[in-house]
Each structure stands twice: as C-alpha cells, then as structure tokens.
Amino acid sequence: MGNILREVGAIARCFESISNIEFKPYGLSKNQYIYLVRICENPGIIQEEIVYMVKVDRSTASRAIEKLERDGFIQKEQESDNRKNKALYPTEKGKEMYAFLRKEDDYSNAAAVKGLSAEEEETLLRLLQKVRANVEPDWEKVKNGGTREY
Amino acid sequence: MGNILREVGAIARCFESISNIEFKPYGLSKNQYIYLVRICENPGIIQEEIVYMVKVDRSTASRAIEKLERDGFIQKEQESDNRKNKALYPTEKGKEMYAFLRKEDDYSNAAAVKGLSAEEEETLLRLLQKVRANVEPDWEKVKNGGTREY
DNA sequence: CTCCTTTTGTTGCAAACGCAATAAAATTAT
DNA sequence: ATAATTTTATTGCGTTTGCAACAAAAGGAG
User: What are phi and psi of B95, to 5 degrees?
Assistant: First the structure.
C-alpha cells in the first residue's frame, strides 16, 4: 500500500526546507522565494492569481508579498483601469535575485529526477499535472467552506 | 519547461490545507494528523524516526508530539533498555481518530489519482519514491549545515 | 440605476514553524 | 576506561501561518 500523497508531502517539505536554508543568507526569509519567482515570471500578476497558482492562504500571500515589497524585491502598482487589483512587478534587486533562484531551482529539479530516464521524467511531470488538476477543485471547495463526503 | 517540484509543492499544500480544515472539528490542530498517523502505524516509534520519515524540523515534531500527548491522542513511554529514547504509542482516543484519518487519507489518494490507469498510478508512486530517495541525502546534508554546489 | 454577489485585498489573533543553542544519554574511538 | 562524537529530545525567540472577520471595488441581476 503505497501512499502517493505522503511521498509528495515529504518531497515538498525537503525542498522547501533546503530552499529556505539556502536563500536565507541572500536576504530572503521563509518562503519568500515562492512568491518572488511567480512575480518575476509573470510581471503584472495580481496577488490572487499567485494564491491560485501556489495554493496558499490569501493572508499568507498578502503578508509575504508585503514583506517582499518592504525588502525592495518587488513593487505594487495601481492598475490604471482598475482600482482594486494591484499589479506586481519585480525591482532590479528582485530580478537579480531571481537569476539566482533559477539556478537553485534548476539544480533541485535535476537532483530530484536523477536516475530517471527522459521518458520517465516526462511521465512524472504529466502525471503530477494531472494530480494537481484533480486536487484543485477540492481545494477551492474546502477552502470556501464546502465539504467532501467520504 | 515543466517544473516537477512546483507541482509537488502545490499538490502538497492543497492536501495539507484540506486535511487541516477537515480535521479541525475533530480536535486536531494544524498538522497534528501527520504525526498521529505515523505513531499509529508504527507503535513504539521514536520522535527522531518520525522526523526522518516526515522531513520536518526536530523542534516542530517535538512540540507537535508534545501537544498530541497533552490532548490525549498518544503516550510517551520510557524504554526499559534505553533512557534516552521515548517510545510513542497511540491511546484509545488516538486509535479511534486514526480510523477516521485513514478514511480521509484513502479518499484523498483516490481523488488525487482519479483518471489515471492502475499502471500509471503504480508508475507515479514508483517515480515519487525514487525522487524522494534522491532528495533525502541532500535534505540531511543541508539541514546539518552542509552546502550544495550549483 | 440600485441591490446583491463576487473578487481582491488586508488585519487581529492565536498557533505552528524552524534555526540556534542546550542537555543528556548512547555510541564510537583512542 | 576515558574522551570525543553522535543521537535523541527540548526550549528560547522571532517569524510565518491561516482561520475569521472585515473592507472596498468590480461585476451582474432585477
């Protein structure tokens, strides 16, 4: 009886832990890298979209991003046609940090799939994307007060 | 360019979030279920072994398990032949809760792999186990102050 | 246009998190 | 046998986390 979610959980905690330790000396505190990466890859993205991509609580994202701004890695900009949404952009400092984050990320991904064939790697990614798609609606549902029956 | 670790991270956060919300009304606070499950499945296990399985900081595990004991879900017992290790056992209350946790866990795993063939499911588990094995040594290393080169 | 709902974002508060430092028992080395 | 190292567990401290509750703008329904 293998348990997919437990493997996923352990792997996720491993890499989160490693990343946080490695980025700390560069001025990024816990989990900030997660948000910075998304903002750098999607300039102008709004917070709620990051929440959807990353799967974290609104309030957590709000404060993490606030801190990123305070620390000079990103900037919030009022969209001209919309006074509610705040578009997020990396600063120069943020972009520099991103280059480093990318190197670490590439290294970690390569380390993760070491020993897998190119085909297995593709398969793994495809299956994980499927799992993620399966999970998303349940997450939305439960986060919004819905219940799962089992 | 698909990123395996980001998928893994999002999936893990989804299920952690769902689990925490679902278990809260039953008296389990954040992430306690993770430790309770391991103790129920491995009666007599010590804390450090759980840390190794789950991939979390010692101090986090220590306090989570302490709380589990305080809440009457588990018991710590001094091993007769060893005064350092503390063997962990579920109480009756803990075992009852475990039955429920198992149902939720089974449901979540089934939901996760919905639409995958039995073969794909096996493949996914196998590949995840491989990734986990790849990651473990790096986690140990970095947690103990070592550095990765990239 | 006005009312209702949804979307986006923030804040209060209590709890969990994890690095660092500590302690003590167990194991290994000399 | 004794010293050095490793293993196991805890605690101090500041930070992050997330549920709840809230606010305000945007979007839809009548």
Answer: -65, -40
**In terms of C-beta density within 10 A (0-12 exposed, 13-18 middle, 19 or more buried), how is residue B78 classed?**
exposed
d(CA A28, CA A73): 9
Q: Is the pLDDT of residue A150 over 90?
A: no
Q: Terminus-to-terminus CA distance in chain B, angstroms?
A: 19
Of the listed ranges A77-81, B9-13, B47-51, the least confidently predicted one is A77-81
The first and second tokens of residue B119, run together, are: 């073969």
Measured CA angle at B142 (ends B139, B143), to 5 deg = 80
User: Does at least one atom of strand C sit less than 7 Å from the CB of B60?
Assistant: yes
Please report the beta strands in chain A, taking only residues with DSSP state E, as ranges in sequence order.
74-79, 82-90
Is residue A65 within 8 Å of residue A88, measured between CB atoms? yes
Residue A121, both tokens: 């790697």
Please give the structure tokens belonging to residue B32.
């306690």
Q: How many CB atoms lie within 10 A of CB A140?
A: 13
Q: What is the pLDDT confidence band of residue B77, given thresholds at 50, 70 and 90?
A: very high
Residues of B with CB below 8 A from A114's CB?
134
Residues in chain B: 150
Distance from CA of B81 to the nearest CA of A (A): 31
Structure tokens, B17: 């979030």
Please, what sign has the CA dihedral across residues B21, B24, B26, B31?
Answer: positive
